[in-house]
Amino acid sequence: MQKTMRRPYQIAGIVLILFAAFIARESLELKYYTTLGPGPGFFPFWLSVLMGVLAAIMFVQATFRQAEPMPDDFYGSRVGYLRALAVIVSFVWLVFTMEGIGFRISMAVFFAWLLLTLGRQKGVIGWIIMIGLTAAGSWGAFWLFNDVLKVILPLGPWGF
Amino acid sequence: MEALGYLMHGFSIALQPQNILFAIIGCFLGTLIGVLPGIGPAGGTAMLIPVTFVLDPTPAIIMLAAIYYGAMYGGTITSVLVNVPGEAASAITCIEGYEMAKRGRAGPALAVAAIGSFIGGNVATVGLVLLALPLTNLALKFGPPEFFALMFVGLSLVTGLAGKSMVRALISAVFGLMVAMIGIDPVMGAPRFSFGVTELLDGFGIVPVAMGVFGIGEILLNAEGEVTEIIDTKLSQLWLSMDDIKASVWPVIRGTFIGFFLGLIPGVGAVVPTFIAYVAEKKTSKYPEKFGTGMIEGVASPETANNAYANAAMIPLFTLGIPGSPTIAILMGAFMMNGLIPGPFLFKEHADFVWAVIASLYIGNLILVIMNLPMIPLWVAVLKIPYSILYALILAFCAIGAYSLDNSIFDVGAMMGWGIIGYIFKKLDIPLAPLVLTLILGPLMERGLRQSLEISRGDMTIFFTRPISGGLMLIGFAFILLASFQAINRVRGEDSQL
User: Fold this and answer.
1) Which of A61, B31, B72, B416 is most exposed by smallest CB count within 10 Å?
2) Does the predicted interface ipTM exceed a cut of 0.90?
3) Same domain? A57 vs A116
4) Pick among B178, B425, B449 to test the A interface (most A CBs inside 10 A)
5) Number of CB pairs < 8 Å for A and B?
6) Is A48 in contact with B423 (Cβ distance < 8 A)?
7) Residue A131 lies inside a defined structural domain of this protein
8) Is residue B160 within 8 Å of residue B279, measured between CB atoms?
9) Are residues A41 and A88 in the same domain?
């Protein structure tokens, strides 16, 4: 039996309804209306109501109408998910280390990690490219952005 | 006729070798700034103001103006090639431009963007010469009710950005509006939905959001899927065919007018004209269902509108001393640093300077197209880089770009978060363009609505009793009704087939 998008849209609908309910509750903590007109809580409240309605329609359509067929590539492979996760991990690394250990070192690890996980070119040439790109992407990028373009990038505790 | 005489004199100054040289330098630097994600025309122009301290006012402003409209084109290059908007105004180009690149048509996409930018920029400059004052007086009639009405029209066009499902497009739009509420309330100054996070008091900037949902989201999708080498493009596919040219004529004309008129209104920003131009193309196309698959009209019109806007936005600056956007405000600062006060007296007291800068806009637009068209094969060659290397480079540039906005690592994390949201939205076939559009329109709309209701003491008829806002509201409602009928007809058509 061909898979459909019924379940994904049902889940998305429920998640969005919960999100809308949360925002509506938070909006009511703000001033709804003042003597001069709508307050800070007015717009967010009604937007969350609208979102709730739209999410409910999405859920109902997914449940009671003929569901759209699921694309063949909707679910990725295990390796694919690991590659995507590698990208996310690389950014988490940057967020937690760039201001602590400096741009150059954190970006060098960032580059090396991505080139290894997304697919390094084969052989000695592959290693040379990887090392070259890692150096260019870290020290080279620092020179270009910090020294030439005057975009201040963080230094580490060792002065580089 | 008097204006033409002044313009000819302006050309005699702008065509001096020194001024041409600085126009070329400005176009090159601007293109480079536009290519680098995150830095943007405002940041790039601001960064390079100190360089102009050693120059006379005329070459200094010529160079800064060239950086501005050069950056508008530069942002297109990464939008088309790697689905990462170099600056916010190029975000909409990701939709059709990147699809064209995936089909081996990156060259025609970049070519039509360059040529459309040239035409739009030059027509806007003609408008500057001939129509500056009367059009600016009209634009000054825009108060809060007119602003709200204009944003309402923009919002009503969200329906034109819907793909297969109107409900999903509206969810994306409402989500964008909700995210736009994060930060300091624009009227009362109260923090909203910041949850104690200081960085959220400013809300989410459009640049990390656009880079995240379009660029990072696409990379996550590609990394997860069956990644193949990028499309191989033949030399014959690098240029525009006769069919491409025929298909682009009316989009370029429409984009020019949309960008030009919206450039006259201070505060609209560069993103709104590009979205309106895209939706206008989709609505007027004989094949709207093909939008999203690489329609050249979807690149020609927004890119033309982009540059027409950039040039037209100088009109309120020159004639009334009102900067229409952050980048124009920085240009205004450069004017003042050089002892020139923008406004009505600028034309009288410094006519030589003003007309030289206006003439340089023509020259700069020509330099841009001459510089960028031959470089198209070079840019397209970027696509031959193995994806692992290309993605690592893109991700690194995005990280640097996001960090450079406010020297804050929070923006890097936010961009990654938005990348995950973009990935989920793409998986669920929820269009991203409405989200980005409403993220920009939302605060403008809310401020316009609340200020208008303060003026009218809560009377909603203010939007309908003023002629300009009344006309715009009617247009907005007409768009919504039309989209509703089309959606109902589509649903009825699907049901009758069951």
Assistant:
1) A61
2) yes
3) no
4) B178
5) 157
6) no
7) yes
8) yes
9) no
- State which residues form the domain around B305: 2-497
For chain A positions 113-152, those within 8 Å of chain B (CB to CB) are: 114-115, 118-121, 129, 133, 137, 141, 145, 149-152
| Bridge partner list, A69 | A4
Structural domain tally of chain B? Answer: 1
Give a yes or no: residue A153 inside a domain.
no
Which residues, other chains included, contact A159 with Cβ-Cβ below 8 Å and sequence gap of 6+?
none
Residue A82 and residue A133 in one domain: yes
A1 within domain boundaries: no
- Scored b (16 or more CB within 10 A) or e, B436-454 reads bbbbbbbbbbbbbbbbbbb
Q: Do B446 and A107 touch (CB under 8 A)?
A: no
Task: Check CB contact under 8 Å for A114 and B395.
Answer: yes
Global pTM reads 0.79
Integer Cα distance of A1 and B315 in angstroms: 62
Q: Give the count of domains, chain A.
A: 2
| C-alpha span between B45 and B64 (Å, rounded) | 6
> What's the length of chain A?
160
| B314: Cα separation from own chain's centroid | 15
Touching A: B residues 115-144, CB under 8 Å: none
From first to last of its 498 residues, what are the pLDDT tens digits of chain B? 666 777 788 888 888 888 888 888 888 888 877 777 666 676 677 667 766 767 788 888 888 888 887 887 788 888 888 887 877 788 889 889 999 988 888 889 999 998 998 899 888 888 877 776 666 666 667 788 988 888 888 777 777 666 678 899 899 999 999 999 999 887 788 889 988 888 888 888 877 888 888 888 888 988 887 655 555 555 556 678 888 999 999 999 999 999 998 888 777 778 889 988 998 898 888 888 888 889 999 999 999 998 898 888 888 777 777 777 777 777 777 777 777 777 766 777 777 787 888 888 888 888 888 888 888 777 777 767 777 788 888 888 888 888 887 888 999 999 999 999 999 999 999 988 788 878 877 888 888 888 888 888 888 899 999 988 999 899 888 888 877 777 777 666 655 544
**Which domain, by its residues, includes A32?**
6-64
Question: What would the two tokens of residue B129 be?
Answer: 């010469």
- With an 8 Å Cβ cutoff, are B450 and A74 in contact? no
Does B223 contact A at CB distance below 8 Å?
Answer: yes
| Residue B181 touches partner A, C-beta closer than 8 Å | yes
Q: Is residue A10 part of a domain?
A: yes
